[in-house]
Automatic annotation (TrEMBL):
<dbReference type="InterPro" id="IPR019027">
    <property type="entry name" value="Pilus_biogenesis_CpaD-related"/>
</dbReference>
<dbReference type="InterPro" id="IPR013361">
    <property type="entry name" value="Pilus_CpaD"/>
</dbReference>
<dbReference type="Pfam" id="PF09476">
    <property type="entry name" value="Pilus_CpaD"/>
</dbReference>
<protein>
    <submittedName>
        <fullName>Pilus assembly protein</fullName>
    </submittedName>
</protein>
Length: 217
């Protein structure tokens, strides 16, 4: 009788429903990867004595053009400085930049030239190329709202934990649409499929080898 009463009272006791999984301690929740529009820019620095693009600068511009063709269909802004010490170089090299973009596949009608005022600090006053595209990204890293030394009782991750890895993962996504939905299936390789079936059945291949499979009783 006493044992049954104790069991009944234990069933009525309040229980702590808090579980570890309910704590907001997941870095993927604090630093989610989102799909949003972002600016992609490239600065091409030029000295006052330059008359044409260097081989290295030309290769970088071609890489920029390839990224643009893969991720955007909008305009490419070419911002040219004015009032800087390299103004003469900019006036001649901007045509080289435009020709390099066009040779890489960027339509000439998509290249829009604008101007900006060069700073008076004597910097290189680069030609800036930019375009907007849908991009996978995270929020800014480096948030430290609490003192780590004074907040160790709960043994939880700190606020900035996982931000860098999430940001690097987002930067590696070539096609942000892959995060939203799967791609369509590619056509089946018929020749490869026939070869795989022939190997499975033990049919001789072109090299004269025979593959057989046995199953145990």
């Amino acid at each position: 009788m006493a044992l049954g009463l104790v069991s009944l009272l234990a069933g009525c006791a309040n229980r702590d429903a808090t579980t570890t999984g309910s704590l907001p301690d997941d870095y993927r929740t604090r630093h989610p990867i989102v799909i949003a529009e972002a600016e992609h820019a490239l600065d091409v620095p030029l000295s006052a004595g330059d008359h044409r693009l260097t081989v290295g600068a030309r290769d970088v511009i071609k890489g920029f053009a390839n990224d643009y063709l893969a991720s955007s269909s909008g305009p490419v802004l070419m911002m040219v400085a004015q009032g800087g010490p390299n103004g003469f170089a900019l006036s001649s090299i901007k045509r080289d930049v435009r020709a390099t973009l066009a040779s890489a596949g960027v339509p000439a009608g998509k290249i829009v030239e604008t101007r900006y005022q060069a700073q008076a600090t004597g910097d290189a006053a680069p030609i800036r190329l930019s375009y907007n595209a849908v991009t996978a990204k995270t929020g800014p890293c480096g948030r430290w709202p609490k003192d780590l030394v004074l907040d160790t009782a709960e043994n939880r991750n700190y606020e900035n934990f996982g931000c860098a890895s999430q940001s690097n993962l987002a930067a590696q996504v070539a096609n942000p649409m892959d995060l939203l939905a799967p791609r369509a299936m590619s056509p089946i390789d018929t020749a490869r499929r026939e070869q795989a079936i022939s190997d499975y059945r033990g049919i001789k291949s072109g090299t004269g080898t025979t593959i057989t499979f046995t199953t145990g009783n």
